[in-house]
Amino acid sequence: VNRIMGMPRKKPKSPPIMSHEFVIQNHADILACIAILIVLGLVAEITAKVSRVFVFLQHGFIKNEEGELEPAVGKDAFPIEFTRGYLDIFTVLFQAMMLIVVHAVIQEYIVDKVSKKLHLSKTKNSRFSESGQLLVWCIVAVGWSAHLIIKNGFFSNISALWEDYPHTIIHWETKLYLLVQMAYWVHMYPELYFQKARKEEIPTRVRYYTLHLVFLAGAYALNFWRVSLIMGMLHFTAEAVFHASRLLYFAEKNELAEMGFTIWRFVFPIVRLLILAIGFLTFRLGLGRAEIQEVDFATGNFNSPFVRIVCLSSLFVLQVWLMWPYTQLIVRRRNEQEELKKKAAVLSTAKPKPVGKKRNRSCTAKKRN
Fold first, then answer.
1. Fewest Cβ atoms nearer than 10 Å: which of 169, 183, 239, 309?
2. For residues 162 and 226, what is the distance between their CA atoms, to the nearest angstrom?
């Protein structure tokens, strides 16, 4: 009507500043401004010390003239080797802010545009968005971890997972990957608020995020990051297949989706068995040869029998817990297929109605009358 009458359109009212709706609509811009302020803090000497803790990797080491590693505090050279410490928490928080901005960009320019064309319901749209974001991350995680595994030679030398433990010195690229891994699952908690997640979905998602964060942070803190690289690559490979199949299902690509779910049903249990095999090989056999009776916090050596039993048992419980819904799904699908076969068999053996006989009876009745 406004176009026909030549009147200007009425602009939609913007929500009040700092209201819930305002924060949800503009959370990416707000966090991007905060990140820019933190980066600009590197310019001034007064704020540079604070900004470095957020922007750069901490706890770095450089080699001296004798070829020995020493802390890089107060040195001009850029450190390449690092260890872990409490300052990594600030780096993870800064990376989580940046990931929220990236999440919003992917959501707005890729996921939302595709979902609008599909005309999905609210429930399916929420699951489509979740799988779209997780598929992007799984692909990045698999590619990045595979690159680091090949670079460190873990495929060709599996004994490197436990030899020369504790693995306190970490290359800068590996440390960056490990911190980004933890930052990704940290940033998923506020995304529940920003994406207006449904109440019934929140407990499942929180449990999913927490399990990833706890196991990744535990492996990083206990210097078991080498074995976590391989386990993470295997785990995210199966997750990538699942979320890709899920997206195809919501896009009504039924044949491709069924093919993807078939591949996932084959890959998922193999991944669980491989993770258990690698865990048993590392924690029971490999690290068991050089175990210590008590944890040595000074050197970062956590190769005690108690710690290894806790790690191996928690890993076993997690794989069994993941396999339980998978087993229920397989059993339910088999029961549905058997019911369909029974119904088809009943319909094929059902006798047709004796139309001819009825006509004969009616004719004989007329003759008698």
1. 309
2. 8
